[in-house]
Amino acid sequence: MSTDPVDFVRAHARLAPVAHLPELRLYQADEPIGLWELTEGEFRGEQPPPFWAFAWAGGQALARYVLDQPDTVAGLRVLDLATGSGLVAIAAARAGAARVRAVDVDPVAVAAAELNAEANEVRLAATVADLLDGDHGDAQVVLAGDVFYSEAMAARMLRFLLRAAADGVRVLVGDPDRAFLPRDRFTELIGYQVPVPTALESVRVRHARVWQLRPPVRRPALR
Questions:
Q1: Of 205, 130, 201, 122, nearest to 160 (Cα)?
Q2: In the predicted model, is pLDDT for residue 199 greater than 90?
Q3: Residue 119 placed within a domain
Q4: Are 81 and 148 in contact (CB under 8 A)?
Q5: What is the pLDDT of residues 18-56, one digit of tens each?
Q6: What is the pLDDT at residue 13?
Q7: Cβ contact 104:79 at 8 Å
Q8: The model scores a pTM over 0.70
Q9: How many distinct structural domains can be found in the chain?
Q10: What pLDDT shows up at residue 84?
Q11: CA distances (Å), 198 to each of 35, 147, 179, in order?
Q12: Which domain holds residue 14?
C-alpha cells in the first residue's frame, strides 16, 4: 500500500457533496470504521486518526456560517486550525477571504485539504504544523471546527485562542456540544441541525453551534 498522503486520500475516500453544504465537495470515506482501523494498523506509524476523511458537525456548522455570512472573512487574512479536510478553510476562501492558511499536524489531512481545495476551485496555503504553543501570525480571523473533543486538546486550544483574541483577532468555533467546550468563554452566534455519519456519532443529526470567543479581560496595571 502506498504511504504517499495524496495517494492514500484518493485510494480511501471519494469526492462527494457535504451534507450541510451541498455546494461543496470533499474527499470522504464511505466506510468510517474500516478506514479508522486501517490507519491504526498498516498506515499507523505516527499518524493521527483520519479526522480528514469526514465532515464533522462542528466544521460543517462553522463552514455554513462563513458561507452564509461572508462579511465574517471577506478581504481578511484567515487561519483555520486543525483543518482536517479543509472544509472550513475552503468555505472561507469561497466567502472572499484575502488569504487562507489551513494548518494541521497530520500530513494526510494537509494533502486532503489541498485536494479538496482544488476540487472546489479555491486557493489556500495548507501547512503541516502544530501552532498551539505559538501564535496566530498575521491572521485577522481564526476559525476552529470541532476541536474540543478531548481534555488535553481543549486546554491547549483554548490557551492559543485566548492569546489570539487578546490581540484583537476574531475567533470563531464550531462545536456540537462536545464535553470539553468551555461555554462560559464564548457567545453563541447560531445553531444548526447537521447530518452526521451514524457510525461515528451514533445519531443521524447533531445540533452544532457557532460560537465567538470573548477576549480576556485586561486588568489595569498596578502603579
A1: 130
A2: no
A3: yes
A4: no
A5: 999 999 999 999 876 667 666 554 444 556 678 999 999
A6: 94
A7: no
A8: yes
A9: 1
A10: 96
A11: 15, 19, 19
A12: 5-213
How is residue 28 written as a grid cell? 470522504
Q: Which amino acid is at 19?
A: A
Strands 21-28 and 77-81, bridge-based pairing: unpaired
Per-residue DSSP letter, 35: H
Is 49 part of any domain? yes
Taking the C-alpha atoms of residue 33 and residue 147, their distance in angstroms, rounded to an integer, is 20
The predicted pLDDT at position 219 comes to 52
Tell me the residue type at 53. A
The order of strands in the sheet holding 186-195 is 125-128, 99-104, 77-81, 141-145, 170-175, 205-213, 186-195
Asked if residues 196 and 179 have their Cβ atoms less than 8 Å apart, the reply is no
Say if 222 falls within a structural domain. Answer: no
Three-state SS at 213: strand
Alpha-carbon 222 to chain mean position: 40
Q: What are phi and psi of 95, to 5 degrees?
A: -80, 0
Would you say residue 15 lies in a domain?
yes
CATH number for the domain spanning 50: value is 3.40.50.150
pLDDT at 1: 44
Do 131 and 106 form a contact (C-beta atoms < 8 A)? no
